[in-house]
Amino acid sequence: MGKKGGKKHLKRKPAPKFWPIHRKEAVWTVKPKPGPHPLSRCIPLTLVIRAILKFAKTRKEAKTIISQGKIKVNEKVQREELFPTGLMDVISIPDPEKTYRVLPSEKGLILHPIGTDEADFKLCRIENKTVVRSGHVQLNLHDGRSMLIRVDDPKKPEEDVYQTLDTLKLSIPEQEFMAHMKLTVGAPAIIIGGKNVGKCGKITAIEEKPSLKRRDLLVTIEDKNGNRFQTTLNFIFVLGETEPSISLPEVD
Fold it and tell me: What pTM was computed for the model?
């Protein structure tokens, strides 16, 4: 009888390119457990502690720190060393008092230091929505969360105002709704994939082409220096209504 399930190990060479590991130093690396983010868009918590934050020199030391409950992910104590941290996750280390948000950059995912005023909320993109049997609207978010929006009639536009690729601002760890940010012209956004990953600015134009799926439509972003970048809607993450609701890394 053949083995069932996926492999529990991962070689360094096929690991995501943005992981801060030496490809030829050893054969194996840690493999994140299944969770809210896919392998291609996450960093195992062990690598965050050992390779990025330099709080440990070995995996054993990193595992000890994590197992002692000294690391919080989205304001919840996380004791699993292979937990996959990904886009917009908030990582907190009480001692020392450091808080980071996982953001996209030209090199992949990075940890951006944030203040305490940003540590109590998270941004989540709507990946899909369905009308459940009770008639309410269920929103499926990019990190595996689901939210049930209670409406009287989901067919009325004034009640069902949510669209896929819009962004929700949620409190953590309570997961309470704080704000809804629509994907429209004029909204600030960041590119999370493609050759322009990490670029941020305001949406200046969205292509209208009925023959294409909405996710494949071209969108133009203009940064604060007047540079313009094009990508598809599938790689756009809205950050606010008129101004970003989170701090972003300084770029030249």
Answer: 0.90
